[in-house]
Amino acid sequence: MPKSSRVRTTPSLFELLRVGDRRALGKSTYVAGLVRREPSLAAELVGVLLSEDKTAVAHAAHALMEVAMSNPEIIQPLRRKLMVEISDIGQWEVREQLCKVLPRLWLSPKDRNIAAGIFVRYLADKSSIVRACALQGLADLAMIDPKRRVPTRKLIEAAAQSGTAAVRARARRLLAGFDIE
């Protein structure tokens, strides 16, 4: 039977990801495994991020991060969509995970500028988790692109002086890493 005429008998990624508590991982690790085995599912996974279902979105964001950490090449073709459409999603779980995903992808200098702009914007997010992850994302980009080190260090130093305890702690840890190099 040709691929195009196959009928899907398994649940959609959305159906799998909408199950469970938003604060738990749900089936995100299972879905990440499916995407690793069938990379063509990556676009469907990213599509779930555009859903109105907050639980599905949270679980999809975690699955996306898991795939990007082990197999960034699967997510690579979707980097523009992530930076243009997905980065504007207000749900904190999406923003948290994008800060981890984007630095794992191969980014052109223009893409790195866009990603850095996203992370700087996230420094004003109401979620301290997002702000801490944005600092980490900026630091990760600075490790890839040395010309970003000085401005990134200044942002991290400012964060170490203000904000929540979690953001200050992350900033101090990141500064220690800058001092080593």
- Distance between the ends: 57 Å
Q: Shape from CA axes?
A: globular
How many separate domains?
2
What's the overall average pLDDT, rounded? 92
Largest sheet data? none
Q: Could you list the spans in which at least 5 consecutive residues all have pLDDT below 50?
A: none
**Number of H- or I-type helical stretches:** 11
Helix proportion: 55-70%
Task: Output the structural class.
Answer: mainly alpha
Radius of gyration: 17 Å
Q: What is the ordering of alpha helices and beta strands? A: HHHHHHHHHHH
Outline the structure in words.
The chain has helices at residues 13-17, 28-37, 42-48, 54-70, 72-75, 79-84, 92-101, 109-122, 128-144, 149-161, 165-180. Helix content is 66%, strand content 0%. The model has no long low-confidence stretch (mean pLDDT 92). The protein folds into two domains: 11-106; 108-181, no CATH class. 40% of the residues are buried.
Report a brief summary of the structure.
The protein is mostly helical and 181 residues long. Helices cover 66% and strands 0% of the residues.
Summarize the SSE layout with pairings.
Layout: H1 13-17, H2 28-37, H3 42-48, H4 54-70, H5 72-75, H6 79-84, H7 92-101, H8 109-122, H9 128-144, H10 149-161, H11 165-180
Provide keyphrases for this structure.
mainly alpha; 11 helices; 181 residues; single chain; globular
